[in-house]
Write a structure and sequence with these properties.
Blueprint lengths: L14 E2 L2 H9 L7 E5 L7 H4 L6 E6 L2 H10 L8 E3 L16 E5 L5 H10 L6 E7 H8 L9 H7 L2 E9 L4 E2 L6 E8 L9 H12 L6 H5 L24 H13 L5
Parallel strand pairs: 2-3, 2-5, 3-4, 5-6
Antiparallel strand pairs: 1-8, 6-9, 7-9
Amino acid sequence: MVQTVKAKKYLGQHFLNDLSIAKKIVDALSDDNKNVLEVGPGMGVLTQFIIPRNGLNFKAVEIDAESVEYLIKNIPALRDDKIISADFLKMDLDSLFDGNFAVIGNFPYNISSQIFFKILEHKDRVPEVVGMLQREVAQRLASPPGKKDYGILSVLLQAYYDIEYLFTVDETAFTPPPKVKSGVIRLKRNRVTHLDCNEALFKTVIKTTFNQRRKTIWNSIRALSFDHEAVREHPFMKMRPEQLSVSQFVELTNIVAQNGNKQ
């Protein structure tokens, strides 16, 4: 059993020292996942609660060589290639497991969005994600339309995942204590296999509108090449991007495509 240890800050990461919270995070991961990848195990505070699960094929990826050395020394179950010393953002995830795999982790604050973009690239193999990250980012990912937190990654993730904000973690639960609170979220893959639109154009439309989120859809969407005048009176054109749901962004994408922009 790994106990709380004196840990260093690495790549913006703060290490969890409250074992009750660590267990609560791991308990949020469904038991039906047979393959689990932990991102950034650090000193193994989550790891110690994941490994005992029956029949689990577990692997962990850690970029910090000193943390890898510590984990191999202190958690024997991580030997035999269960701990991978690598950069998660540069890994070929398809080679890690036969079949689907869940992802869990205390994600470094400064790359948490990049982690979720990486997961999106493998959405058809990742049925579930449980992650702890900066509270404001966690709230943004789980935010419904109409809220100021709702943004690019909110729409892209919610197109393929049901997202639930689980609980908040105070600064005192970490070593060193961060200056902000953390939030734990759970993503579960929905039944959408593909969107009813050009998915590349869907991403372009979302990024184009949210990059000018203070403007109406009409004023931002004109950056794209299509017949703007044909859609000027559409109700969406008077709205702002945070007001549109995933299905409305799909409809907006089709409007753009039908009027000249085929991506």
